[in-house]
Each structure stands twice: as C-alpha cells, then as structure tokens.
Design goal:
Blueprint (H helix, E strand, L loop, with lengths): L2 H9 L1 H13 L28 E5 L11 H4 L5 E5 H10 L7 E3 L5 E3 L7
Antiparallel strand pairs: 1-2, 3-4
The protein binds zinc ion (ZN) (2 copies).
One zinc ion (ZN) binds next to strand 2 and helix 4.
Length: 118
C-alpha cells in the first residue's frame, strides 16, 4: 500500500485549494450535522481544545488506483466537508478494513474506531 502517494496528494497545492473552496461553499459547517468546524488556514483562531476539526471526505474513497485521477480526487462533486464525528461515522459504515483510516488535515494517517492498524 502506498500511503506515501496519498500523503503527497493531501499536501499538494491543488488539494489545499479545492479543500478550501469546499469549506467556503459550506460556510465552514459540517455537511451532515451542520455544526461549525475548525479548518486550519480559514477559521478564526480557536484554542485546540475548542476546535471541532473539519475533514473533507471523498465520497468515492481514495485508494491506490484512483489517487492520481483528478476527476475523483479534485472534483468538488466527489467531496463533502464533514466534522470529525460525522467523518468517522461515514467510514465506520463500511465494513471493509481497507477504509478504516483517513488522512488528517496535515496529511498524517489516522485510524478510525480501533479496528486495527491503518
Ligand atoms: Zn458533523
Ligand atoms: Zn473520508
């Protein structure tokens, strides 16, 4: 599994730009629960403990086969801004172990729900 490729994607300028427009379109609200989220570089400063982190989710999950396909990775129609809670729920829905991880806003891999290693 090439986590490196995906990490690189999440750090790319193109992704940073599209991610920003997703949040601006949604007025920094979670698309599902409509609570305000904190997005680095856009939100007004909040102390760490008060942040509800926002994560831009790919409706078609990213994997090694599509990470270089801009129509999936950078298409705003495939993207949805979610708070951390809704994002975890979304990924926990799928039983496949493959999807039990995601990348945070800094491009670091995070596992979801303790189903094992990412
Ligand atoms: Zn939410
Ligand atoms: Zn996701």
């Amino acid at each position: 599994m090439s986590y490196g490729i995906r990490r690189k994607f999440y750090l790319s300028k193109a992704w940073q730009d599209v991610r920003k427009s997703v949040w601006l379109n949604q007025n920094l609200l979670c698309n599902r629960c409509h609570r305000p989220v904190y997005v680095d570089g856009i939100s007004d400063y909040l102390p760490k403990g008060k942040r509800r982190t926002g994560i831009v989710h790919h409706k078609v999950y990213l994997d090694d086969t599509n990470v270089n396909d801009k129509e999936i990775t950078l298409d705003i129609n495939n993207l949805e801004g979610l708070c951390k809670d809704c994002h975890e729920l979304e990924h926990n829905k799928g039983q496949s172990t493959r999807n039990n991880y995601y990348f945070d806003e800094d491009g670091n891999i995070q596992s979801i729900g303790g189903y094992g290693q990412p």
